[in-house]
Write a structure and sequence with these properties.
The protein contains 14 helices and 53 strands. With about 950 residues, it is of the alpha+beta class. The chain has an eight-stranded mixed sheet with strand order 1-2-3-4-28-27-26-25, with no helix packed on it. The chain has a seven-stranded mixed sheet with strand order 40-42-44-45-48-52-51. It has a seven-stranded mixed sheet with strand order 41-43-46-47-53-49-50. A hairpin with a 4-residue loop joins strand 6 and strand 7. It is elongated. It starts with a helix and ends with a helix.
Length: about 950
């Protein structure tokens, strides 16, 4: 243990030498400067739509996030602007010139005395310049008294504003007038009685009546030219006993008296409300991108009474890094997205946007210039030539002079209530030219792990060394460095990057070789040793994720006793494995959370079943009710001698189909392969099963580029793919048929690829040897030819082991006599590549770059549980033509860039909607294949 701690200390010192300090992140609020203020809730009440009400004097403030902080900092910098002339306000609704703008051009305010006040700017018809009355002189709206709540919409194109107010007697009234014209005659009408609350978003207003019914109407119906045609409020069908609703983006949420939560579409009148079963008892609902809705990455979380965000879909999943939540607020952007703000009990505010796939970050507040309609800046960042203004400090402290962001000198801001705030240093870090994967790894004696270097500049040569060769050694397989574990201990693996004209740079990772009994303690010690500067490094996080999964697997391994020569995989066995795995997973997630390390993907739970060694025949009896419907375990790995079978629990229902039991028999053959037989409980052989099972075969092949797993039905052998997995010491491939499987060489080459770059050569040779890609009739690969939908579909079906020769298709332009028929039919059955609405497939059409990339990224998402990046712009801003990327493709494109399925070209143009070539597809599939 002394050696272990010494190694950990050495690693910390090494990494700290490359690190500076960072901005506040996770639950840490310490790294902010004296010019900035974090505990906003101490002095302000938080309202929706970025409105703050000062607790000491009732003044009204709005705030906007500095757009530069969206991408460059680990916190959001928000500038506050006081609305002059207003105090004792209860609600505030406003319109600004642009999204996230401080330039307010209209507002209405409900005061605590029940009166309503407004201020309008006015746009002339001659030059569109803004002319307004002084902003500190709002006007009262006559005849609107005893108001308890209001909502408002401003229609610039119609030069009209509409208000809907709830009065103390429970009646709801509409009120409208021209913008900027105090002499216009307002239009008023009564809409409803017996109303408890009102709200609005995206052009729709809603009322919850005291009887629990919900009513809605379009705010544009009350424009002057529409009001005569207005149908008035209509009841939302299917909602009753409602006490509260949350509206904004798609969908809306309703809370019933019995604690259940229901969702419904605001834009589909025929929408039927659906219950969110996992949200019962929630105080509030928050969302992330709809693209993330699946069994691995959750998009909807419920704020429960323990002040944490719990997944609506997985009862045991807490939103990491955000606890002790006092309340949740939002600002609607459009009908599909909004910003969420969580006020914590320590009075800090945390923000994220649901369509940027971002995790919550601390909001750090500064004072900005007054929010008037004639401001020229629209992003919340003061323009560089603006002069400083004198503002009222937070909490009523001594005044300070605040310069605009970008040219601000040191200030003398006093912290609230005399509390000393901590200082932040800028993010200054000297990174080596390379990053290593894994950053940290743990192996058992005899296991192997690949080493991957990223951020490698052109012309860089990398040399790998290991600190203690008696603990582990380095070798090279197919051009990929691999570390092999020998005996227990710990050491450092170094990668030295040499590039002409530049000093050498060295990166490191820590290697632990541990026996099973020491695994968890070693892991938790390693997690605590990670410097703050590396906790958001993707390579570090993935290394810790994989090491954590090893801890979970070690805790959920069991060697059951055979019954009549068969290992029975029963519900009782899986319950034990899942229970142990759940405890280990919780401990791993807690350790990561406590050390402010956010996962980039969900932890995979892989339990192991260990039979007795030294056999040549293994029989496993799988019971359907032991696997189907489980959410607490992802994979079951069954060892059979030196081979392994990996069962995907998520597809167990398809695997068993209508069978209650499946028996799998493995017999080792002389060529090192295995004969696999699937049968039912009565012993009747099944020619195939409905879902793939991963088979890992032992191999001593040193060059995995030219090897493949072969399948033989006793008549003919053919390659089915497979890739070398160093951590498993074998070739892995997915299977679904009874027959013999073995590993053999299958070298393929094409003369027109020989002069291409090394990666493309290797990609084509690798995929061709696996039978995934094929050449043309002339013996060439033709990497520059445009890829057709039929060709890409065939590649994907082979790569995903999805070929089903019994499958049929329904496309009018695909026929059994065509070479691509079985691939397109298999693709349709497995939902890999879809057809067109007119019933055609268009097999000879090309495929666009964003379509190809989307399929690859979705595979990483679905098969390896990778989260779509929440900060998509960080990746897409690298392209100068990012506007060519369709909105639907942004999440998948950003994940593809992050995981290097595609490169950023030298000209930085993605040309997302242009057709791709066969060579591009081969390169992407090769990179994808190595990551799956």
């Amino acid at each position: 243990m002394k050696r272990l701690m010494a190694a950990l200390l050495s690693l910390v010192l090494i990494l700290t030498a490359h690190s500076g300090t960072i901005q506040a992140k996770g639950n840490d609020t310490s790294a902010v400067s004296e010019q900035q203020y974090t505990r906003i809730g101490e002095d302000y009440d938080i309202l929706d739509e970025n409105v703050l009400l000062a607790k000491n004097d009732g003044t009204v403030w709005t705030w906007v996030i500095n757009k530069d902080s969206l991408k460059t900092l680990d916190c959001y910098i928000a500038e506050m602007f006081q609305i002059p002339g207003l105090q004792d306000v209860k609600q505030f609704r406003y319109k600004s010139r642009e999204e996230n703008s401080r330039a307010i051009i209209n507002y209405v305010a409900l005061k605590k005395d029940g009166t309503v006040w407004y201020w309008d700017s006015k746009i002339t018809k001659t030059d569109d310049t803004i002319i307004h009355s002084p902003m500190d002189t709002p006007s009262p709206i006559k005849d609107l008294n005893n108001v308890t709540s209001l909502v408002a919409d401003f229609f610039d194109s119609s030069n009209f504003k509409t208000l809907f107010v709830l009065k103390s007697d429970g009646s709801v009234w509409s009120w409208g007038s021209e913008l900027g014209d105090a002499s216009s005659i307002p239009i008023q009408s009564k809409l409803l009685d017996d109303v408890a609350s009102i709200s609005s978003a995206n052009g729709f207003a809603y009322a919850v009546k005291k009887d629990g019914s919900v009513w809605s109407w379009s705010t544009s119906e009350y424009l002057p030219y529409n009001i005569s045609k207005s149908k008035g409020p209509e009841q939302v069908k299917g909602l009753n006993d409602i006490v509260n609703i949350e509206v904004g983006s798609y969908p809306n949420f309703a809370y019933k008296k019995d604690g259940t939560v229901w969702s419904w579409s605001a834009y589909n009148p025929a929408s039927v409300p659906e219950q969110l079963h996992g949200a019962t008892g929630a105080r509030s609902i928050v969302e992330f991108s709809m693209m993330l809705q699946d069994q691995f990455i959750d998009s909807i979380y419920a704020l429960r009474t323990d002040d944490q965000l719990w997944s609506v879909y997985n009862d045991d999943k807490v939103f990491l890094g955000l606890t002790d939540i006092a309340s949740v607020h939002n600002k609607v952007k459009d009908r599909y997205s909004k910003w969420y703000y969580a006020l914590k009990k320590d009075q800090t505010l945390w923000a994220w946007e649901d369509n940027l796939y971002s995790l919550p970050k601390l909001v750090v507040f500064t004072k900005g210039m007054a929010a008037t309609g004639d401001q020229t800046g629209v992003t919340g960042t003061s323009t560089g030539d603006s002069s400083g203004t004198t503002g009222t400090p937070i909490g009523g402290q001594t005044e300070k002079t605040t310069q605009p962001t970008g040219s601000r000198p040191e200030t003398t801001d006093q912290p609230t209530a005399g509390r000393s705030e901590t200082k932040a240093q800028p993010v200054i870090r000297t990174s080596p030219e390379i990053s290593l994967f894994p950053f940290i790894t743990m192996l058992k004696p005899g296991e192997q792990q690949t080493i991957t270097a990223s951020n490698v500049l052109p012309g860089t040569k990398i040399t790998y060394t290991i600190g203690d060769p008696s603990i582990g050694t380095l070798s090279n397989v197919n051009g990929i460095p691999i570390v092999t574990a020998y005996k227990s201990g710990q050491t450092i693996v170094r990668a030295t990057a040499t590039r002409a004209g530049f000093p050498n740079e060295t990166a490191y990772f820590l290697l632990y070789i541990v026996e099973g009994s020491m695994l968890s303690d070693t892991y938790f010690t390693a997690v605590r040793s990670i410097p703050d500067a590396d906790k958001k490094n993707s390579v570090t996080v993935e290394g810790l994720t994989q090491a954590g999964e090893l801890v979970i697997t070690a805790a959920s391994s069991e060697k059951p006793t055979p019954v009549n020569g068969q290992l029975l995989i029963t519900p009782e066995l899986i319950d034990r494995l899942a229970g142990n795995a759940s405890k280990a997973k919780s401990a791993v997630k807690q350790a990561l959370s406590e050390n402010r390390i956010a996962l980039a993907r969900e932890l995979i739970v892989n339990a192991e079943i260990l039979p007795s060694p030294g056999q040549n025949e293994y029989i496993f009896k799988l019971y359907k009710d032991s696997l189907v419907g489980r959410k607490d375990i992802d994979y079951i790995t069954v060892l059979a001698g030196d081979a392994k079978l990996v069962l995907n629990v998520a597809t167990a229902d398809r695997l068993f189909d209508s069978l209650p039991v499946i028996v799998i028999r493995l017999v080792k053959e002389n060529n090192g392969g295995y004969r696999v037989q699937f049968s039912d409980e009565q012993g009747q052989e099944l020619p195939n099963v409905s879902s793939n099972i991963l088979l890992i075969l032992p191999t001593k092949q040193t060059n995995a580029t030219h090897t493949s797993v072969f399948y033989s039905n006793g008549k003919k052998a053919r390659p089915i793919g497979g890739k070398f997995n160093p951590s498993q010491n074998g070739m892995e491939a997915e299977i679904n048929r009874s027959g013999a499987y073995f590993v053999d060489e299958n070298s393929k080459s094409f003369p027109d690829v020989d002069d291409r770059d090394p990666e493309l050569q290797q990609a084509v040779q690798f995929l061709a040897s696996k039978g995934i890609v094929t050449g043309k009739d002339n013996g060439n690969f033709e990497p520059d030819s445009l890829l057709t939908r039929a060709e890409f579909t065939a590649m994907l079906v082979r790569a995903f082991y999805a070929l089903d020769e019994t499958a049929t298709e329904s496309f009018s332009d695909v026929h059994p006599s065509q070479w691509h028929h079985p691939y397109i039919a298999s693709s349709e059955k497995k939902h890999i590549v879809e057809g067109y609405p007119d019933g055609t497939f268009k097999p000879d059409h090309t495929i666009s770059r964003e379509e190809m990339t989307a399929i690859g990224a979705r595979s990483l998402h679905e098969k390896k549980h990778y989260f779509y990046p929440m900060n998509t712009e960080d990746y897409l801003n690298q392209f100068v033509d990012k506007e060519t990327i369709s909105n639907w493709a942004k999440p998948t494109m950003s994940l593809a860039v992050k995981q290097r399925l595609i490169d950023v070209p030298a000209d930085k143009r993605i040309k997302a909607r242009e057709a791709v070539t066969r060579g591009e597809a081969a390169r992407m599939l090769y990179r994808l294949y190595l990551q799956l």
